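Suppose you are handed a protein chain with no further information: no name, no annotation, nothing but its sequence. What can you learn? This example shows the usual starting point.
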Amino acid sequence: MQQLEQHEQQRVVGRPFPKGTSGNPRGRPDSYRYREVVAALTAEMGGEDQLTATQRFAIDQIARLKARGGKRDPVRTANAIAKLMKLLFMERNREQRQVGPFEHLSALASQ
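A reasonable first move is to predict its three-dimensional structure. Written in structure tokens, the prediction is:
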């Protein structure tokens, strides 16, 4: 009985942390950020069934880099993400155009 009373007195109601301090100092887990980025990029590209192997690879690498957060070297991380995003959208544009290997020559010949 005495232990129960001590426990209730020690129990804090409300927020036990000072204002402006996080209750979870490490923040959300990296896996949450990874899943969030993958879901957003996959939706942007038209869904999981629309992705090529190259696009899946680029999305995976972007999500891994963003989940890590670039804490050690933010400039290098930002540059790597930018290059992967360029690869991702170049692949998407290539699929949308469906240009054959010699179609660009016919445009030159007509000039």
